[in-house]
Amino acid sequence: MKRLLLAACLSTAIATAVVGCATTTSPTGRTQQVGAVSQEQLNAMGVQAFNQAKAQKPQSSDARQNAYVRCVVNAVTRELPPNWQYNWETALFVDNSPNAFALPGGKVGLYTGIFSVARNQDQLAAVVAHEIGHVVSRHHDERITRQMGAQAGLGIVGAIVGSAYGEGAASAAGQLGGAAVQAGFLLPNNRQQESEADVVGQQLMAKAGFDPQQAIGLWENMIAASGGSRPPQWLSTHPDPRSRIQELRARASGLMPTYQQARAAGHTPRCG
């Protein structure tokens, strides 16, 4: 659903990037290896990559659409823990791809094509919360740290360029040793992160007062838009959409009390 943009700004970060690695716990309780770069460096890289994206890609001038996406992003980010309470910035890029991303440093980018699959504010919140889920779960940090450990002297540039989600994973696998690494290390890691971002994002949207059941509708729309064409699940960088829908549906019922409590407390977004 996104391409990681951090590779665009590596040339200014390499000289000071490498620091000690550490073991931490993700929001879902998973053990992570992080720390190849500091959070400050990640934030700076995210900001620079975002600025370059804005310089290179046209942004929508539609005031209504811009207000809509800012409203959803603001509603979601208000529910983040204090250490993630940046002044989150949003950009809406003119592109027909149903795509979105979030970056360290408090940046969210959406493509106008996302409206073709996210057809109401709750479905758009599912997209936004999922992408922010990657950031707060430290997936950028984890990807860089793990790939630096796997790349065995190929250099930090190659490692981070290879950390792009989705289509970029195949390129990374080629750099790191071919099909065995691709099937056994890089791609399963992507699926794990995608599943975790689903969990974190669905919880976050419910806390913000968006219906967590609408994440199911979003992925049903995604399947319809793709024509149902998918590679085998074990070779995919994302969970199989139908498996994903089953997991989202199973979690949604448990999150309804959170959603109802949020609404009762006044978290009633009216964005679109």
Automatic annotation (TrEMBL):
Cofactor: Zn(2+)
UniProt entry tagged with the keyword Hydrolase: yes
Signal peptide interval: 1-17
Annotated Peptidase M48 domain residues: 64-251
GO BP term, example: proteolysis involved in protein catabolic process
GO CC, one annotated term: membrane
Keyword Ribonucleoprotein: no
Gene Ontology MF annotations: metal ion binding; metalloendopeptidase activity
Cofactor note: Binds 1 zinc ion per subunit.
Gene3D superfamilies tied to this protein: Metalloproteases ('zincins'), catalytic domain
Pfam families, A to Z: Peptidase_M48
Keywords (A to Z) from UniProt: Hydrolase, Metal-binding, Metalloprotease, Protease, Signal, Zinc
InterPro entries: Mito/Outer_Membr_Metalloprot, Peptidase_M48
Family classification: Belongs to the peptidase M48 family.
Protein name per its UniProtKB record: M48 family metallopeptidase
Organism, scientific name: Agrilutibacter solisilvae
Higher taxonomy: Bacteria, Pseudomonadati, Pseudomonadota, Gammaproteobacteria, Lysobacterales
